Amino acid sequence: MSARRMSLSDQVRRAIDAAGATRYAIAKAAGVDHAVMSRFMAGKVGLSTKSLDALAAVLDLNVTARGPAKVLPAAKRGPKSKRKG
């Protein structure tokens, strides 16, 4: 049985909960609106890369690859559609 990889968002949520500070304090330090942070923590919305970068800085997080990148095959393209005009 293979273990399901935890999403980046779930890893950030876990880091926020383990930080030892209130969510409000973390949001304020990162410049993220507390209401947005609350909805993110509830899994209702995602965060912008700007907000994720700010939270990563406050929480001292780094993204680390666990192995080589998994490259997906290129999508097969059908025939080009002809433009009428």
Count of helical stretches: 4
How many individual β-strands? 0
Mean pLDDT: 87
For the biggest sheet, the summary is:
none
- Morphology call: elongated
The percent range for strand residues is under 5%
- CATH-derived topology of one domain: 434 Repressor (Amino-terminal Domain)
Query: Helical amount among residues, as a percent range?
Result: 40-55%
H/E element string? HHHH
Spans with pLDDT under 50 lasting ≥5 residues? Answer: none
Rg over CA atoms, rounded to whole Å, is: 19 Å
Distance, first to last CA: 55 Å
CATH architecture of one domain: Orthogonal Bundle
CATH class of one domain: Mainly Alpha
Chart the SSEs and their pairings:
Layout: H1 8-18, H2 23-30, H3 34-41, H4 49-59
Structure overview:
With 85 residues, this protein is mostly helical. It has a domain at 8-59: 434 Repressor (Amino-terminal Domain). It has four helices and no strands. It has helices at residues 8-18, 23-30, 34-41, 49-59. The radius of gyration is 19 Å and the shape is elongated.
Quick gist of this model?
The chain contains 4 helices and no strands. It has 85 residues and is mostly helical.
Comma- or semicolon-separated keywords:
85 residues, mainly alpha, 434 Repressor (Amino-terminal Domain), elongated
